Amino acid sequence: MVATAALALAGLLLGIQLLETALDYLNLQYGADAVRDADEWVRNALDVDDPEEMLAYQRSKTILSRSQSWLGVAAVVAVVVSGAYGDVATALSETGLPSAAQGVSLLAGAVVAGRLLSAPFDAYETFVVEERFGFNNQTAGLWLRDLLIGTVLALVLGGLVGGAILLAVEALPAVWPVVGWALVVGFSLLMMIVYPRVIAPLFNDFEPIGAGDLRDAVEDVFERAGFECEQVYEMDASRRSSHSNAYFVGFGRAKRVVLFDTLVEQMDREAIQAVLAHELAHWKKSHIWKQLAASAVQMAVVFAFLWWVTTSQWVYAAFGLPAETYAALGIGLLYAAPVLTLTAPLTNRLSLAHEREADDFAAATMGEAASMTRALETLAGENLSNPFPHPAYAAFHLTHPPIPERIRRLREQYGEDGGSEGVAGDEGGPDVPPAA
What we know:
Elements: H1 2-37, H2 39-44, H3 51-81, H4 84-93, H5 99-132, H6 140-171, H7 176-199, E1 206-208, H8 213-225, E2 232-235, E3 246-249, E4 256-260, H9 261-266, H10 269-284, H11 287-310, H12 313-318, H13 325-342, H14 344-366, H15 370-383, H16 391-397, H17 403-414
Parallel strand pairs: 2-4
Antiparallel strand pairs: 1-2, 3-4
Helix pairs in contact: 1-3, 1-13, 1-16, 3-5, 4-5, 5-6, 6-7, 7-11, 8-10, 10-14, 10-15, 11-13, 14-16, 15-17
């Protein structure tokens, strides 16, 4: 029975990997054909001198990521099929430690093993792939520091949440899934405050945007958007990479907008304002709370499934587990992960809708869409992002619509020139090719 159940789980995990590999292949082929067909648009609108470099970057990243994923799944399958997972759980149950401490020890071991497995891939990505394409600015010392701090954080935060849930299992065996769900949701809320103030500064410096042209631009777009938020920061992203981005995080007095210094360097004033307005929309339109609510519903389903797994005696017998809930939870999570992957197209739809709504808010705030379209083109070109993902790949992986689709949508609503006659650097722009 052990072999049958383990092989069934292995088949599920490997099947998901086969699906993901097929999606990667389709995405690379589809993107390559589309980029070559839209060569002129990629060169002119995205300012990419050599579209083949963009394709090579995507290939390198995809192959490395999928290789890492296959190795990780192979390691998990080997541990489960060989019965090693059951043996480790049994050994922990015989240590005499409290059940929660046993579970936290098992979790800590999994975290460390995962970090050790991913470290060589992360190093190769940083110092070979990112270096080859001119993105890496990171030193070996800084990379090692990030690895150590990230591992400690994963152990501490994972141990706190996991330990709290396991204590609930012991103290409230009849309702622990409800308590566990509340703990996870509460932790998500807490992290929205703790992350920007405590965790992010461990990795980057955040400087409030002071007096000057950039501050004037920020205040101008805030006034247009009817928004009050003094916490606007510029992050030293260039310390590690030349990739550019921006994000909104937190709520209440802890909410803040973060602009990468690379983004500030790469974009003109109006494009930066459009990006800022886009990020503000995620608060103005309650996207943060809607995403949190959707995540809470998803977590409720996961905890209901874990409740069923941990109360089903077959899982203990099938995988040779001791009568410890934490041991069954580990198996339950292995089953849950593929289900979450398969339902990703449904969960991504909410994020896609929010991104379109944020684009609309940015265009309305600016009074034109050309600034937002220029920002999108700059982000795609400077980051060598694939502008034409395969529809199936996009459904499973993308939380943002493809950039050509976003640009065309904005131009359809505001006119071919984005409603921006006279905006420097935008004469209507080249025709946007069909969305992938």
